[in-house]
Amino acid sequence: MNIEELRIYCVEKKEVTESFPFDTSTLVFKVADKMFALIGLDRMPHAVNLKCNPDKAIGLRESYQAVTSAYHMSKKHWNTITLEDDMDAKEIKQWIDHSYNLVVNGLTKKKQRELGFIK
């Protein structure tokens, strides 16, 4: 999965915005103004930081060489995934979905209703 494919996958999700709140090389994806993915555009190879359930985060780090604790983020709740050629795009999409869903589920029920996530 390349950066543009990852970007498109993220922005097509409901209520997602993209911005550069920190600097000109860190692209941040938010849902309801809460981060769920960050990409360092100047880093090679490219990598994405994704929010993750703490137990799952440890398991992914143990199972995949390309998955490490996130740089400059909470090591308990964030992973960095290096986008290597042999990484399965389907798995990366599942991890993006997991990150997105963690953030959405962490919103108040009122906010989830306002944004149309629940009725």
Report what the structure shows.
By secondary structure, this protein is an alpha+beta fold. The chain has one domain (3-114): Aspartate Aminotransferase, domain 1 (Alpha-Beta Complex), CATH 3.90.1150. Helices cover 36% and strands 25% of the residues. The protein has a 6-stranded antiparallel β-sheet with strand order 1-2-3-4-6-5, covered by helices on one side. Strand 1 and strand 2 (26-31) form a beta hairpin. The longest helix has 18 residues, at 89-106.
Class by alpha and beta content: alpha+beta
Number of domains: 1
Order of strands, main sheet, comes to 1-2-3-4-6-5
Order of helices and strands: HEEEEHEEHH
Second-tier CATH architecture = Alpha-Beta Complex
As a percent range, the share of helical residues equals: 25-40%
Secondary-structure topology with pairs:
Layout lengths: L2 H9 L4 E4 L6 E6 L2 E7 L6 E5 L2 H10 L3 E3 L8 E5 L6 H18 L2 H6 L5
Antiparallel strand pairs: 1-2, 2-3, 3-4, 4-6, 5-6
GO molecular function: DNA binding
InterPro entries: YjbR (IPR007351), YjbR-like_sf (IPR038056), YjbR/MT2646/Rv2570-like (IPR058532)
Keywords: DNA-binding
